[in-house]
Amino acid sequence: MSFTFRARILASLFTLSTAVCFQNIAAGSIATAGTGEESDFLPAIEMAPFVVEGDNSAIFVHARSRGDRRYAEKFAEEVIRVTYDSLGKSTGRGLVIVGRNKEPHPFTIFEKFIAMADAGQLDPSVMPMAEATRKKLVDWQEEIEIEDAEMGIEFDMVVELLPISLEASGSKLYQWAWIDEFDMELVDQRFRNLRAEDFSADQLDTYDWVFYLPPKGAVHRVIKEVIPLVMKAEDMGFFARAAARTALIAFRPVITKAMEGMRKGMLFYAVSKARTAYSKDDIEQLAQAYSQVLMPDFKFNGGSQHARAVEAIQQQLEKNIEYAKDPFIAPERSMTLNAADYADFPGDYVDEDQDEVTHRFRIEDDTFTWTYRDKDPMVFYAATSHKLIRENGKMTIEFLIDEDGNITGVEERWHRRRKTVPVQSTTLLTGN
Questions:
Q1: What's the mean per-residue pLDDT of the chain?
Q2: Which residues contact 393 (CB under 8 A, 6 or more apart)?
Q3: Which pLDDT does position 260 carry in this prediction?
Q4: 111 and 164 Cβ atoms separated by less than 8 Å
Q5: Cα–chain-centroid distance for residue 253?
Q6: How far from each other are the two terminal CA atoms of the chain, in whole angstroms?
Q7: Looking at 324, 353, 371, which one is the last position of a domain?
Q8: Same domain for 291 and 379?
Q9: Other beta carbons less than 10 A from residue 252's beta carbon
Q10: Among candidates 195, 210, 123, which has minimal Cα distance to 163?
Q11: Are residues 279 and 352 in the same domain?
């Protein structure tokens, strides 16, 4: 899974010299932005019991039970502490909305809105909102990348445990569904009557970011549904399935911890995206660094998890800066270079600390291939006198030459990654 992963909410142990003020203030009096009117949604919002005084940073929670509120507050506080301590920036006013068991995920609401648009059931004036919602969902699914065709796992099977930022039209759609108590017949009728002006003001515009957090129990429901698919894909026999179920019970806390780590990474991503000037790509790398610290690895790690998370994010910040100095840029294919210009490069190359060939560069029928171990050969095209680009444009190989004109190795480059593979010292195949 790539996430694409991300994050947020301020807490009481900031290393600021500002005082921390604990409150529990009902937010029902917050007016709808742009209209001054209130709605049924607002009285369920309360300030979480921590806020940084003197800074426009606070967390609010929309929950309908004490248990949900405690879960959201603890979840958000941990992420926001890490976000602030690692990035040193205000996390702003944020709202965490906790979903409830058996209520549709916002994804379901958005899909319905899009489907009605495609079926011509919406007023033409709201079509731009439908397209914006469609784009949001496409981007979100691409970030998650959670489908697994071999295992038979599809996005819809796990969507209920995934958080999502509620932005623009998505925020309004979710609120309307909530007001209609997620009765899909009422939601259908409401969507048919919407006009563009209904989207002009949002009562949640007073928040810098709004984050939907699925109920904690969603993780267990998804595990119960997905694990049998994994067993089936692995073609397990009866005893193997029984052993797997036993292991699942034993390791369920570990799986839950991993899922929570992923969800916290997504909150970090959402907050950082809303409150920093970093690029989306940089924020993804930061969120992945944070989530990785939260993943169970069955090792003893010194120091607190908070300290390790902050350190990992700050190390990734430094890597982001270094990458920005020389980012991966796919070169254009050359229309003049041909196989003869690369005749000296075919040969065998060996990863450091390996005893046998790991990479092979070949030219056959004027086609360049770069092969790693027993994988399928990757096809490349000429770019410069020493560099080739993969046919999908996402990787380059560059032949490294010393002062005497000898080939010393190949530098592989991908987005945010590079590696040098030395030439095998005893073999150089020319023209093969």
A1: 80
A2: 330
A3: 87
A4: no
A5: 22
A6: 39
A7: 324
A8: no
A9: 15
A10: 210
A11: no
94 strand-pairing partners: 59, 209
Residue 418 placed within a domain = yes
Residue 96's nearest CA partner among 217, 9, 206, 219 is 9
Length of the chain equals 432
Number of domains forming the structure of the chain: 2
Structure tokens at 321: 């800066």
Q: Which residue is listed with tokens 């560099």?
A: 387
Please name the residues in contact with 133: beta carbons below 8 A apart, sequence gap of 6 or more: 110, 113, 114, 169, 170, 173
288 and 246 within one domain? yes
Give the C-alpha separation, 127 to 117, whole Å: 7
Does 307 lie in the same domain as 191? yes
**Closest C-alpha to 314, from 84, 117, 42:** 84
CATH of the domain at 350: 2.40.128
Q: Which two tokens stand for residue 402?
A: 């010393």
Kindly report the backbone phi and psi dihedral angles of residue 285, in degrees, each rounded to the nearest multiple of 5, phi listed first: -65, -40
One domain, residues 51 and 195 = yes
* pLDDT tens digits for range 291-349: 999 987 656 566 789 999 999 999 999 999 999 999 999 999 999 999 999 999 999 99
12 pLDDT exceeds 80?
A: no
Q: What percent of the chain has pLDDT over 70?
A: 76
Beta strands 347-349 and 359-364 are antiparallel
